[in-house]
Amino acid sequence: MMLILKPKKDFEVSVEAEITPDLAEKSEEEIKNFEVWYGKYKVKLGELFEIKKEGDEKKLVLEGDFSRVKWIGRGMPDGEIIVKGSVGAHCGAFMSGGKIVVEGNADDWLGAEMSGGEIVVKGNAKNLVGCAYYGDLEGMKGGKILIEGNAGNYIGEKMAGGEIEIKGNAGDFVGTEMKNGTIIVHGDCGFVGGDMKGGTIKIGGKFDLLPSFKKAEDGWVGDINVGGEGKIVKI
Amino acid sequence: MLWIKNGIVIDPKNGIEGEKMDIFVKEGKIVEESEVNKEECKVIDASNKLVVAGGVEMHSHIAGSKINTGRSMRPEEMRVVRNVAGKFRAVVGRVLLTAPGIGYEYAKMGYTTAVEAASPPIGSPHTHEELDAIPILDKAALPVFGNWHFVFKFVSEKDQEKLQAFIAWAIERTKGYGVKIVNPGGVEKWMYGSNVRTLDDEVPIYGVTPREIITEVVKANEALNLPHCVHIHCNNLGVPGNYETTIETMKLVSGMKNENRPVLHVTHVQFNAYAGSSWRDVSSGAEEIAKYVNKTDNITIDMGQPIFGHATAMTGDAPFQFTLHRLTGARWSNKDTEIEGGAGIVPLVYLPKNPVHALQWAIGLELGLLIDSDKVVISTDWPNGGPFTEYPYIMAMLMSKRMREKELERVSPYVQKASSLPAIDTEKTLYEVIKMSRSLPAKILGMENKGHLGVGADADIAIYDINPNEVDPSVEYELINKAFRKPAYTIKGGEIVVKDGELVAETWGRTFWVDATKKVSMEAIESDLDEYFQNYYSVERINFGVDERWVKKPARLEVK
């Protein structure tokens, strides 16, 4: 079943709702009673959102402004989420499969530590896309994130696999401590690859190169400070 | 008043080995039957259950700057929520628990007393604030002396009188319980960028050696007749070949004697029991150490048993932690290099398939098995060797060769050639394991009312759902491992705090501290103290230390 959610109001504080396409397969009663956090209070999904079911795909359609709703698609293994608006932080974190399409913008921690699946953002994304949570050793390990607009700082920090593609520009510290995988920035960005051990960063526009990278045949290799063999390639 | 009925009691201190007995509790103490009015007693039916004293943890890092720094540098640890606020306080942490969790988890295992094994003296107000945040347990802290400039000064001047006065002053000021020394001289040398490698290496400026520091401090500790013996973290910790330094250190006290307790407690010996010359050919030196400890009568040790999985290395031994950081590539933090000691912190995971980790695990068990059970205490040196909540695993392993054989299948085969663990047939008895976790640590600490169930003891009692006269730990090791994790009751100071493995009440234990100031003449060191504080300390002497009224429930022990 396809599940359509619409916010009933403008949220005054953040909503933490770990909603995944699995929810679409539950009964209306269960969906309404699904527990989420509204600020410091635990509330039922039905109190915050209008709920409608139609069709027969395993799909979640979020209509309206979800920019204050965090953890959408957290850890989802399959199915699809379409957001006809913007999403809050941690969207698609830990996801292992399925697809999330955000028609608006995404907040911080998009696809953090994801291991599979696909995320498409038609607008911009903020910081820490595909990153590792503080203290963890590996960020994104697989899957793909495509951002059609611009992205912020710390894209793919500690990334260990998969691909992040940004059509626009990105900020500083792209691929910091990267271990594997690919980051493509079609536009400009700031410093790239600090402490990177492996993987590839491809850049279309201007960028700042650290002095700890050495020239190679098709670009630069480093970060030699950590004995890294990451590649920075101009496209 | 409590009447614990028909329990099967094991109480090594009083020589009780699985007798069916009743125990009576009044006003937080264990009393004679005649002292209580049975009709007013709350009756606990302990039929077919094991009744023992509450566990005594003598070496764990439960409070102070390094555990707290460990928490802040490991955000990933803090994502594990153990208890949300409600009836009891919120607790987070996978291995590095927040303060309330320490009290809860020890109690949930039947432990009722725990000692912070290394407190930097200038940080003692912080240590006590954290101790005060730990519920249920009775607590104490051991200030570190082995790298304190006053100690170097008085040792180099060979002035025992001043050294004794200083130790008495320092323990009173920090509201400490005893004398801890960590890598004596080595941490000071680290501040110049290196470490001591033998007992005869000199400490810069002072010219004293670890040999002199240890010998003089032990002499002072004995002259003061402090309840706890000197508690030492040896030099060369974590260095292949270090078992020789450990034995050499133990030999420093040969000939010394104390009627009531050992003269030296060597802690987390697993980390100091390596043979070989590098990490490539490292092997176990546990047999040599066991041979030495078994033939002496004035030394005890604790295991420092590693547990596979997450841990966090943290010791007052910064040079070792720096080496560990270089070895593992893990992040590290260095604490307090400008003060009386220095601590380092490094996140760690023990992996069964890693040859070195597997060997460390085997060495801990070798020490536990090869050493007489009245000379070795169970510990993981939490959080260095892993979670203290795995003590039931250690107990079961010590009691069952079958369990060890099963565990050996999953560890690196390196253990087979580098340690004697696979060949050890010893199986400790339940009585011995109870001794190693109760009466022995209490004896070493000089806590007369802890670790036993005799009349006059504190009513700290654990009741487990096993019948010692029926269970065969060698075969039923899973039952042992399970039962010790889930006491039927934990009773602290006469109050039931845990029932069927679940917390039912939060109480507040005491903080023990030792006052030996009447045994010395403070005047001897007045001018030294004044001079040092004026010239070298960032705090005034008047502001150094902890007043008794700042401690939540202080319990002063005066040394006669």
Automatic annotation (TrEMBL), chain B:
Domain annotation Amidohydrolase: ranges: 42-498
Pfam families linked: Amidohydro_3
GO molecular function annotations of the record: hydrolase activity, acting on carbon-nitrogen (but not peptide) bonds
Listed name of the protein: Formylmethanofuran dehydrogenase subunit A
